[in-house]
Design a protein that fits this description.
Elements (H helix, E strand, L loop, with lengths): L10 H11 L9 E5 L2 E5 L1 H17 L7 E5 L4 H12 L3 E5 L5 H11 L3 E4 L2 H10 L8 E4 L10 E3 H14 L14 E7 L7 E6 H12 L9 E4 L6 H13 L3 E4 L6 H8 L3 E4 L1 H16 L3 H23 L4 H21 L6 E4 L6 H9 L4 E6 L6 E4 L18 E4 L4 E5 L6 E2 L3 H7 E2 L2 E10 L5 E6 L4 E2 L5 E2 L1 H9 L4 E7 L6 E7 L1 H10 L7 H4 L3 H15 L8 E6 L19 H7 L1 H9 L7
Parallel strand pairs: 1-11, 3-4, 3-5, 5-6, 6-7, 10-11, 12-13, 13-14, 25-26
Antiparallel strand pairs: 1-2, 8-9, 9-18, 14-15, 16-17, 17-20, 19-20, 20-21, 22-23, 24-25
Helix pairs in contact: 2-3, 2-6, 4-5, 7-8, 11-12, 11-13
Amino acid sequence: MGLIYSDFSTLPDLFNKVFTHYKGQPDKFPLARKVNGKYEPISYDSLREDVSDLAAFLKDKGIEPGDRVAILSENRPGWYLADMAILSIGAIDVPLYPSLPPNQIEYILKDSGSKVIIVSNMLQLGKIISVWQDLPELDSIIVMNRLEEPEEGVIELSEAKKRGKKILAETPDFVSYQMIKPDDIATIIYTSGTTGVPKGVMLTHRNICENIKSCSTIIRLDESDRSLSFLPLSHAYERTGGYYLLFACGAAIYLAESIETVSLNIAEAKPTIIFTVPRLFDRIRTNILKQIANESPVKQKIFNWACSTGMQYHKSSEKGKISPTLTLQHKVAEKLVYHKISQKFGGSLRFFVSGGAALPQKVGEFFQGLGITILEGFGLTETSPVTNVNRPENVKFGTVGPVVNNVEISIASDGEILFRGPSIMKGYWNDEAATKEVIYDGWFHTGDIGELDEDGYLRITDRKKHIIVTSGGKNIAPLPIEHLIAESPYVDQVMVVGEKRPFLTALIVPNYNELKNYAEENDISSASGSELLKDKQINKLFENLLRTVSRQLATHEKVRKFLLIPEQFSIENGQLTPTLKLKRRAISSKFEKEINSLYKAMVYNTE
């Protein structure tokens, strides 16, 4: 079936059409959340009423079209409600990661000029109150949870809805979305820049609506579909794919309780589609292999045979030649292995969609061998975000698939990937210079290097810019983190690594003069430099340094492990350029073994 309506041109237009379609149908619902240990649905009518009430309150507070209203919350029904209400009055929403520290929140609220912020709980409220005196434009705060004690300028969401309901009872047509135009800005999403100062990506209603329409022709969804949502809604990928696309097709979104409960919630929600990042597959694969290792040798042999059979079957089906013997073997493997694996994911899963970071080819093939399809895609916040995705009927691991409808791709002479089309951002908020750096000659320049195969499938081969993309899909600028670490007198040089990894680590060249002074003052007897680096007290010194630095960083930016390097990075050893810039690839390659050991030694943490 796909989209319920395909003629929407703004997000409030889409919301209104879907709400009208399901009016008076209590058995249909867009959202379900855990209440007292079981999933409870929220009906379309109930959500629509809440959206209208909150929209009326915001408008009465003086929020006008084009004003910015921020959202600082974990995934919960209030996030969807806040987003819909803000957009319904023509305001622009500014989503913030709940893991951000107060100083970064302050920068974004100040840069965007947000007038109101909607926060989830007392923890997030505390962050805002701590910086409120430096935010002259921030007028008030709405809190989704109950307030522990009254606070001037702070109102509970339930009270805001009550006031909105009263306004609508007196003036039913108080809220109207008719004045909103497709080229109006819908949202400003802040993303890491190479300098570390976040840039606000301006996405219009047209940008996002066109992307929803493009994705709907590839990932066919209808009201029989259900998803489990756990990626942050402040990320463009979850917002367009895991929220707007599903809502537009009448699918139900089940909210995971937390990242830790995903495997339990999958079994309960029985999703047909899951939008996720490669790191989840690493975890699932590790768990499956760990369980198999504890089974009898016979069961291990059956599992390995089923994996191999599955891979052969898919390779043969791509060529259109599956032998009767292989077909029979595949059916046997289905009964013995694939069916049991499928039950772990609720038994209804059609496919995973993977984005946000590169999916290792062997991981994709492993899951396909077990009868689970992963559709890897690609995109950037600046492209609303989806530009490419593998097709269910023709998955090529190691590629991110062909472009979606309405997106044109070009590979520049230096290999840089360029895009153009109606889903390309309007530009960066308050930063015309940065906009001109990436949008010129009619094309958006991604900063990524890639190549197209004979079928138009894109393979990303390198990154032009130094942004680190973790396996959790977080974009991190290493330079500002390196600058913070290098402020210590005990650090001479530092390089942060974490590309396609679950967390960041730092390679640190110590300042030996300062380190020797520290050793003398603390009665550390190690004489030579290399011996000093093995000393427990010295390692504790650097652990404390990184802990102090981490307080100024978002959760996903924290450096969790470090490696002390005995020799300076230099031009002579090929680790610095002639202009004394770090040759990141050369350094990573030189210390690859040690870096791998750091990650193996630490159990994956959630970012």
